[in-house]
Write a structure and sequence with these properties.
single chain, 222 residues, alpha/beta, TIM Barrel, 8 helices, 20% strand, globular, binds D-xylitol-5-phosphate, binds zinc ion
C-alpha cells in the first residue's frame, strides 16, 4: 500500500495570505498543495501565478492544482518552481494537443478529475501518469461538504493503478477521510480541517489517525 500523507491545501487570494499559510505549515510538512484558479474554469480566483512564484519558498515539494482552462499558459510563469514539483491539470480541459504541450515542458504531470466527470474521460491518458487527484467537492472553494460518491472513482483508479499516487481533495477531515483512504487515496489534502485549527500539527495528526483507523477497521473485519 502507498504510504499515507496529509497535505495542507493553500488557497490564497493575496501574497500575504499565501505567505502566512505556507509559514504555518512549513515546520511540519515536505509537501504543500497550492490551489490555482483562473475565474473561468471555476467561479473563483486565487493569487496570480507570477505572484505565487514570488512567495513560494524553496525546499518544499509543491503540488500545483491547476483549476484553470489553460495550464500550459500558467505553468511557465512559475519559473524555477515549474520543474521538480507536480502539476495536476484537470481532466475536463484535457486534449491531446494540450497534454503534448505540457509533456514537452519536461515537468511532472498528473490528472485531477471533478466529482461529476466519469473516469472514462481520462481513459486515453491513464497509463501516461502515476499521479491522480480526485475532487471530493466541486472545485472553486474551500470549506465545502465532502461528496462520498467519489470514493467509487478513487477505488476504480486504485484498481487500475496499484502504485499511483491518488490524492483526495475537498471536505477532507477526520470525519470523512476514512472512506477516502479505504477506497485507495494515499494523499489526503485538506484546507479548512488544517488551517481552521489553532494547533496545525494536531489537526494533521488527527486526519492521519482517522485515515489509519478507517483502514484498520476494514482489515479487522475481513
Ligand atoms: C477546492 C480546492 C481544494 C480546497 C480544499 O477547489 O481544490 O483544495 O482548497 O479545501 P477544504 O479542505 O476546506 O475542502
Ligand atoms: Zn485543490
Amino acid at each position: 500500500m502507498k504510504a499515507l500523507e496529509v497535505i495542507p491545501a493553500v488557497l490564497a487570494k493575496s501574497s500575504e495570505e499565501m505567505r502566512a499559510k505556507i509559514d504555518r505549515v512549513t515546520p511540519y510538512v515536505k509537501t504543500i498543495h497550492i490551489d490555482m484558479m483562473d475565474g473561468k474554469f471555476v467561479p473563483n480566483t486565487t493569487l496570480s501565478t507570477d505572484e505565487t512564484a514570488k512567495v513560494l519558498v524553496p525546499g518544499k515539494y509543491y503540488i500545483f492544482h491547476w483549476m484553470v482552462e489553460k495550464p500550459e499558459e500558467e505553468i511557465p510563469k512559475l519559473g524555477k518552481f515549474a520543474k521538480g514539483n507536480l502539476h495536476l491539470v484537470h481532466a475536463e480541459v484535457l486534449e491531446r494537443e494540450r497534454w503534448g504541450m505540457l509533456k514537452g515542458m519536461g515537468i511532472e504531470l498528473g490528472i485531477a478529475i471533478n466529482p461529476e466527470t466519469p473516469l472514462e474521460r481520462i481513459d486515453d491518458y491513464i497509463n501516461e501518469t502515476e499521479e491522480f487527484l480526485v475532487m471530493s467537492v466541486h472545485p472553486g472553494f474551500s470549506n465545502q461538504k465532502y461528496i462520498p460518491d467519489v470514493e467509487g472513482k478513487i477505488g476504480e483508479i486504485r484498481k487500475k493503478k496499484p502504485n499511483a499516487n491518488i490524492e483526495v481533495d475537498g471536505g477532507v477531515g477526520p470525519q470523512t477521510v476514512g472512506g477516502a483512504a479505504v477506497a485507495g487515496a494515499n494523499r489526503l489534502a485538506a484546507a479548512s480541517a488544517i488551517f481552521g485549527k489553532e494547533d496545525i500539527e494536531k489537526a494533521m495528526l488527527d486526519i492521519m489517525g482517522a485515515a489509519e483507523e478507517g483502514i484498520a477497521d476494514v482489515q479487522e473485519n475481513k
